[in-house]
Specification:
Length: 150
Amino acid sequence: MPTSTRFVLSLHMLALVANKGGAPLRSDDIASSVNTNPAFVRAIFSRLAAAGLTTSQLGHRGGALLAREPRAITLLDVFRAVEDRDLFPFPRARAGAAANRIDRHMTTTLERVLAPVGNALEQALQQVSLDDVLDDIVTREQVGALVSDH
């Protein structure tokens, strides 16, 4: 199954913007931090803006801004904004007459058995905000500073 890094990179990008405290952040600066190119960053911000999560300020001192407070942006919001797949994708059987009972019923059986996993994942992402991510980063930074002081 192909995977995408858009979700993780989007969270990183949003955390960088949130960390600026309301000042716009340029796509070149973000691209350098997340180790990708500015065009990819702009494409991700386009998706985030379409979902109402970010906005942009044009001009010499322009850049990306959050459209909502970090506590009002959930990880599920971010995932839905940037991914082109289901949260918990199920394999699909081939169309047409299946050769045997396993082939005929595997997809519907997996959907029934794994649906609770997908629902739990969705609920977990809905309960975590960008603010929670930032709080965890700050805590880790503080703990790291304490450890390095000893």
